[in-house]
Specification:
Layout: H1 3-43, H2 75-85, H3 91-112, H4 117-163, H5 168-178, H6 183-195, H7 200-211, H8 214-229, H9 233-257, H10 259-282, H11 289-292, H12 294-321
Helix pairs in contact: 1-3, 2-4, 3-4, 4-5, 4-9, 5-6, 6-7, 7-8, 8-9, 10-12
């Protein structure tokens, strides 16, 4: 099969997948608009809930019918990641992005590296698996950063509610109603788990597993130990809140100090592609040797491997510096 035929089929597949992705996005937007109208009806337009909203179990995702398309041995980990990521990214979109990424990577490897059919298929399959996982990880990281930014305020709200005389369950319910997502959503799911019959300890441990953050694990351990041993919960949570704020301040300070290094890493990673794009526009024939000459594939492979190795090393150094 010639490169022209492969390219034509890939373009057609990309167009069909893009249409499917747009249709899925439109369906998500209609679903979100419907949920907003239902919320308006529940609150009566006053911002206060006048119609009880049915609570759902914690971590239930809306696209369970698509999980059967994921390989069986990857389903538990993938579903757990989706549950932690909430509704930041949907499984139907991932199932559309996966073949698009696989097809593009396969065509790229076929044109520039002249791989065999087996190597092209393997590279496409790997890209179709790794790209969705990376998208979920990015969405999960964004939600965790938002949660960490809101969590100290949530702890302070619980402290004020306890000092006002409210029980801990009512304080958690107040956080779910007053705080914005993702913090408010996690506390609403926590309260929903307790309402359907879970014990306080089980609900807290399930929430800790869903959030998967060290700070929330501290919070969970504080509440469980206080229920078992007693003590002044307000003072304990107030101390925890101050510790969380100091940790957040140190993290922000570290991010500020490493911003120059991160910018340099992004520039260095994008520079080869920028230079290649400029050369392709200014002098297209200059890069033909990498496609026509078999030795060009080895040069491109070595350059790409060196670039990925350098990016990986910089990411490891930055992640260790921000821990």
């Amino acid at each position: 099969m010639s490169i022209q035929v492969i390219f034509s089929l890939t373009v057609m597949f990309f167009i069909i997948s893009a249409v499917a992705l747009l249709a899925t996005s439109a369906a998500d937007m209609r679903r979100a608009a419907t949920q907003k109208r239902l919320q308006t009806l529940r609150t009566g337009g006053t911002g206060r809930q006048v119609i009880a909203e049915p609570e759902r179990g914690g971590g239930q995702i809306s696209s369970d019918q698509y999980i059967a398309l994921v390989p069986k041995h990857l389903r538990p980990d993938f579903k757990r990641m989706l549950e932690s990521a909430g509704h930041a990214i949907s499984l139907p979109k991932l199932l559309i992005v996966a073949p698009i990424a696989g097809a593009l990577v396969a065509v790229f490897c076929q044109i520039f590296f002249h791989l065999s059919l087996f190597g092209t298929v393997i590279s496409g399959v790997l890209a179709g698996i790794l790209v969705p996982f990376q998208m979920v990880r990015m969405a999960l990281g964004k939600l965790k950063r938002q949660f960490l930014g809101q969590f100290p305020d949530a702890v302070d709200l619980i402290v004020r509610a306890i000092r006002a005389g409210l029980p801990i369950s009512a304080a958690l319910d107040a956080v779910g109603k007053e705080m914005s997502d993702p913090t408010g959503k996690e506390f609403r799911l926590l309260v929903a788990d307790m309402k359907i019959g879970m014990t306080f300890e089980e609900a807290m441990r399930r929430a800790a597993g869903r959030v998967n953050l060290l700070e929330f694990s501290f919070f969970t351990a504080s509440l469980i130990l206080q229920r078992e041993t007693g003590g002044n919960l307000a003072e304990t949570l107030e101390t925890l809140g101050s510790v969380l704020r100091r940790r957040q301040e140190m993290l922000l300070k570290t991010n500020t100090l490493t911003s120059e290094a991160r910018t340099s890493a992004y520039v260095m990673a994008a520079l080869p592609f920028f230079v290649a794009g400029v050369l392709f526009v200014v002098s297209p024939g200059y890069l033909n040797v990498y496609v026509t000459d078999p030795r060009g594939s080895y040069v491109l492979g070595a350059a790409l491997a060196s670039l990925l190795c350098g990016i990986g090393i910089m990411q490891i150094m930055l992640s260790r510096a921000t821990k």
